[in-house]
Amino acid sequence: MGEEIRRALTLEDVASAAGVSRATASRALTGSDTTSTPARERVRAVAERMGYTPNTVARALAGGVGARVVVAASGPAPDVLDDPYMWRVLGATAAACDGEGIGVSLQWLPLDAPASLHRLAADRSVRGVVLVNSTERLLAELPDALRGRVASIGIGSADVPSFDVDNRAGAGAVVRHLHATGRRRIAMLAGPQWLPCSWRSAQVYSEVVQAAGLPVRVLPGDFGFENGRSGALEVLRRWPDTDAIFAICDAAALGAMAALRGLGVQVPGDVAVAGFDDLPVAAWSGPALTTATHPVTRIATGAATAVLAGAPAEGTTWYPSELVLRESA
Amino acid sequence: MGEEIRRALTLEDVASAAGVSRATASRALTGSDTTSTPARERVRAVAERMGYTPNTVARALAGGVGARVVVAASGPAPDVLDDPYMWRVLGATAAACDGEGIGVSLQWLPLDAPASLHRLAADRSVRGVVLVNSTERLLAELPDALRGRVASIGIGSADVPSFDVDNRAGAGAVVRHLHATGRRRIAMLAGPQWLPCSWRSAQVYSEVVQAAGLPVRVLPGDFGFENGRSGALEVLRRWPDTDAIFAICDAAALGAMAALRGLGVQVPGDVAVAGFDDLPVAAWSGPALTTATHPVTRIATGAATAVLAGAPAEGTTWYPSELVLRESA
DNA sequence: CTGAAAGCGCTAACAA
DNA sequence: TTGTTAGCGCTTTCAG
Question: Where is the HTH lacI-type domain (chains A, B) (predicted)?
């Protein structure tokens, strides 16, 4: 014994080795109930020495809770799951859940089918849900059964704590930087109409630009490279004197840069380009992308932790969005 | 009833509504055992109508299997988990497991601690393991308890089926393309020494280059942008007449391009640059990156499916690596 | 503070 | 083919 772990140990093994009942061993290990100090320490030492790993599955079944956290991303089509951002959120969520022996799943929540949330609520294998890109409609339909074990990355509600980046501040900083460096015809490639937390950036853009007496030039779109490329072309077609483009996502900003390159337009000489999110690739382009950095991992960790804790936080936890100056603007 | 799902249904509810025993309902739903056609269809119809979702947790406990699949990435340090590639594998694995209602976890397997595999083997909440970047040493230490429920993305063994990209073919195609387009001083920024499946590419590079009577110029490193940047500088310092750089990963290739750009070296005019993997960013750079494409999602899906099926495939399933010609080479 | 006993929801023998 | 009976490993009343 010691080195070699043969068949998996059960709590019973630990309990009998420590000379206590299974119930006491359980209490000692979970700390859920009072135990005498000596008993507790003995049980813990024995468990440690034997290399005991609690079976999360049995624990979940007995406790009446699920064994996985679902990252549920809403959007118009299932391909919202096919996205590096989602994978990153999933990775961070997995990291946060791993300590508890809990796995994660990734699912699509159709925008127009709030019932899909009820599926999750009815599934007793689900411990909790991390909502991504949620909408007010979806939040309004939140099943009672989910209350207290759901968190949102993006907008929240009275029942759903939210973990979000302060993109008002971030977008404002970007636009003000463009203005401060002499840009006077600033266009924005904004996000999807259906996504509330992407409106905020566009709104701030409009406010700042109007306050400076500059024209408002917004094009809605999505977060992708292709949208950035076509969006930039459209911007220059509609407003040829544009001297700066602020894209809602770095990928779109890179698309805009590619379009400008194709047109022989110098960045940042002729047109400045700024992104949003600070994806790793933002630092890799030539010229490197000026953007606002978002702590996606920390945000996802916060949301996952809230879900695991079960109905703690209320309201919104804001994470900073900070300007990162590189070469493109 | 119908629309509103109140408290979660159990198999018992379905069984009694269908007028059969719980066992029969179970058999009808899982298809694990023979059931009369009318009974089976009745049970299924009732389950469907009531909106019954089996509790994966209870299922796993009763079946003596786990409820999550662990994506276990080996490497020298825990930061191997902090990698878009791992998140992508995790996402694909999650997608493959979602149908069965099982979650995924992401864990680090220290290179020098094969015992960490025993931890996973001893954890009864683990349904199976997808190994990423595994080494021969790790595979040799495979615990018996894991046999039949593990698959590897990368090298495999007699006990571990492997799902891998045919990077010999892909790397060969890249190098031959460089040669065919007139490059005669081709350097390679290779992968880590400890990672077997990255050796193959370097080996093929050497073979092709030697067969063509060209000099072998290899620098080991890792898959990162920074390594590509410093590697390219080192290449030009040691072999100033280099006219092509083949990097083991697109991120490194972009790093090399950034270094060359800083030096005022034209790509592909002075030096061609080729990557490997075909990450999304490969198409976004200026110039766009010539590389070899790898179906990471399909590979991960294959591995996850094998793990869920439980000990089906043996040997290696190869996935194609195909040359993608863009602008950089 | 601790032990005995009753489940959590499901699958898998074992009978019928 | 079906129902009955035991558990899977754990948490949690409920007594003691």
Answer: 9-63
